[in-house]
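S1.2 Input.
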Amino acid sequence: MPNKKHETGGVPERLRQITVETLPVEVPYIPDVDPYTELPEVIYIDKTQADGMGRLAVDGRQPVKLLDMDKLPAKGTVILMNVWVQADEGGLRQGIVADCRRYDGTFDVVDGLKEIDFTDQEEAWDTLEMQQHQVVISAVVDNDSKGETRVWGDPAFYDAALHMAKLVNKESKKHATAEADTKKQNKKSHKKSKKSKG
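S1.3 Output.
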């Protein structure tokens, strides 16, 4: 007799570590880095991409966690989202969009086609693995010098990047509203406690 409580084979999804390579579609995530790791160790600029103009890139094995506006890292972060867009030739294209508006730092420029030095076997294998798992960011959302939101990168991902920016803005607004409500509640309860003491 089949067990009605048996859902599916394998393990529950919540137990799986999500990485850049396995990002769900249209859900904002941030790199899950420990306090001793700097963001430029995880994300970098590959100068060989986009005909030498460079593109942001990240190791696809990098763990990520759901965006939580209450728990953003003090040093800022980059928000990543997996998107699918309609390609000019008719099919669908998948890519990662990065919202960098909450990151004040810069990223190192790396030569993605640099020759590998096999005299140091350990470093050579690390480089080979990094190249094998490299995920190039399709589009970047950031603020220009006037503070206005702009999109850089593959034009095919322009609309998807703007859609992501709106999603993040919505989350940010919800967070700000909740924070303001909490402050109001705290002020009210503080006044009440003062009156009861008086």
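S1.4 Remarks. The first helix runs from residue 121 to 132.
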